[in-house]
Write a structure and sequence with these properties.
- This protein is of the alpha/beta class.
- It is built from 16 helices and 19 strands.
- It has a 7-stranded mixed β-sheet, with helices on both faces.
- α3 packs antiparallel against α5.
- It is globular and about 65 Å long.
- The termini are far apart.
- The structure holds 1,4-dihydronicotinamide adenine dinucleotide (NAI) and magnesium ion.
- 1,4-dihydronicotinamide adenine dinucleotide binds next to α8 and α9.
Length: about 500
């Protein structure tokens, strides 16, 4: 349950006048205009965010450049670590405010925001804080020894533009900011136009804990204007992006101007493979959780189920039963297990996919009830009779829609071929008790993260995609190194 005072405070924060946070100052956007923030749980207006555009982006990039070459370059790694840790403590002290703001603006169940999104952000800050003092290079053994002394060092890549989506806006903003700042980069954060609220609160805490001005800048605004201006700006050295494959492609083209470094975390169509020897009860729960969590708006949601024919009916019935029982409703209602999707546009998109699947010959084998009312609710749905050519199987739906398919051949190569028959390659999930099959299948799957019998996200575990799921990795050592340039230094002896 949300504490009424805390909820009122969160609503008051949402409704106040918001500006852009540039160079340590809250500034009016040049456009002088604003855009609406809505609650997906009931469609009501929460407040307005400032509409940043190209001129504001330019100011923010200049501020980030000045800080990069000045105050932040002079800040010792241990001090960067301390600031990030202090920010984690500050968020922890206000954890419930962040959870409430995330639920108000994104729609997800408050329980999920409290249990996953906010703690994950805090852990990500602490994890990366540790790296600030530990990034280093190697001493190199040369092929012609004795002539030079050679070694490598890691330097911050520079000014980073972080463009984040709306499905886990707070956790993803922090997942980009924490390694960037730990590595010594400066940042311009552009949250999605649907969900800027937690990023705004975050910027206030950044100000409070005392980061030097210009190190962290926040420009709220639309993708086509603020986002596009960032990816085209010659003063930006790196773009880190999570979002659609379509915009990912656009960013790659725009980055060619000054050869920006680019990290892309795009969509997915994660296969869930259930072998005949799997713990069926756990597999059913896992499969349901994987597609219905966050109303399916998860890049590595398990959206294609491949179950052995001997367990297929049990799996479909089990997941369908879950779908039927799920309490779909507003995120603030403590009884809610699945919230709304983020917008009317996303609701139309998801319902459109279900219709297209049925039109192309799929059957609805299980469906829950979408809450009535003005919120953007969609019913959790299990489709069977789905073929590899159907749009519901090929395209990312980003909604609570599972396509269930069976296999009869136990050959691991054949199973992997079915699972790998997709443009995406972000995740794969395997359910089996057979250790050998678990290892062999994990190697055959073309996916950035393979999870066997459960397992989740961790700030230490690299995350990213094969194929059209993106470029590069976030999290872990690889994640922070992606915010550095490697320099080789050779000294003649
Ligand atoms: P999107 O890719 O348009 O939006 C993500 C972010 O990119 C937002 O901050 C947006 O303002 C920004 N953006 C949009 N156009 C831009 C441009 N031209 N230049 C720079 N930045 C730009 O995603 P959208 O349209 O909200 O969702 C469409 C579909 O994308 C979803 O249905 C889902 O399939 C996929 N998606 C995948 C996500 C993931 O986690 N991999 C997250 C969000 C969406
Ligand atoms: Mg878009």
């Amino acid at each position: 349950m949300a504490d009424q005072n805390a909820l009122e405070n969160a609503r008051r924060f949402a409704g106040k006048e918001h500006r852009l946070f540039i160079d340590g100052v809250w500034r009016e956007p040049r456009s002088g205009s604003a855009f609406e923030m809505r609650n997906p749980g009931d469609g009501t207006l929460l407040g307005q965010a400032a509409k940043g555009e190209a001129a504001d982006v330019d100011l923010a990039v200049r501020a980030a450049r000045t800080a990069l070459e000045g105050v932040w370059a002079d800040t010792k790694p241990a001090e960067r670590a301390r600031l990030l840790w202090r920010l984690a403590d500050a968020i922890e002290a206000h954890a419930d405010d962040f959870a409430l703001l995330e639920t108000l603006n994104n729609g997800k169940p408050l329980r999920d925001a409290r249990l996953f999104d906010v703690p994950h952000a805090i852990e990500t800050l602490r994890y990366n804080s540790g790296w600030a003092t530990k990034l280093g290079g190697d001493t190199i053994n040369l092929s012609g020894p004795g002539t030079w002394h050679a070694f490598t060092v890691r330097e911050p890549i520079g000014v980073v533009a972080a463009i984040v989506p709306w499905n886990a806006p707070f956790a993803m903003s922090v997942a980009k900011m924490a390694p960037a700042l730990a590595a010594g980069c400066t940042l311009i954060l552009k949250p999605a136009e649907q969900t800027p609220l937690t990023a705004l609160r975050l910027a206030h805490l950044v100000e409070e804990v005392g980061f030097p001005k210009g190190v962290f800048n926040l420009v709220t605004g639309f993708g086509e204007t603020a986002g596009a201006a960032l990816v085209e700006h010659p003063g930006v050295d790196k773009v880190t992006f999570t979002g659609s494959t379509e915009v990912g492609r656009h960013i790659v083209r725009a980055a060619a101007g000054n050869f920006k470094r680019v990290t892309l975390e795009l969509g997915g169509k994660t296969p869930v493979i259930v072998m005949p020897d799997a713990d069926i009860k756990r597999a059913i729960e896992g499969a349901a959780r994987s597609i219905f969590t966050n109303a399916g708006q998860v890049c590595n949601a398990g959206s294609r189920l491949f179950a052995h024919e001997s367990v297929f009916d049990a799996l479909v019935e089990g997941v369908a039963e879950h779908a039927g029982k799920l309490r779909v409703g507003p995120g603030l209602d403590p009884a809610t297990q699945m919230g709304p999707v983020v917008s009317q546009e996303q609701k139309d998109r998801v319902l459109g996919y279900i219709e297209a699947g049925v039109r192309e010959g799929a059957r609805i084998s299980g469906q829950g009830t979408a809450a009535s009312g003005p919120g953007y609710f969609v019913p959790p749905t299990v489709l069977t009779g789905t073929l590899p050519t159907m749009s519901v199987v090929r395209e990312e739906i980003f909604g609570p829609v599972l396509c269930a398919m069976s296999f009869s051949d136990g050959d691991l190569d054949a199973i992997a071929a079915r699972a790998n028959d997709t443009d995406y390659g972000l995740g794969a999930i395997v359910w089996t008790q057979n250790l050998s099959a678990a290892h062999r299948l994990s190697r055959k799957l073309k996916a950035g993260t393979v999870r066997v019998n459960g397992g989740g996200l961790d700030p230490a575990l690299p995350f990213g995609g094969f194929k059209q799921s993106g470029w590069g990795r976030e999290n872990g050592r690889d994640g922070i190194e992606a915010y550095t340039e490697l320099k080789s230094i050779a000294i003649a002896l």
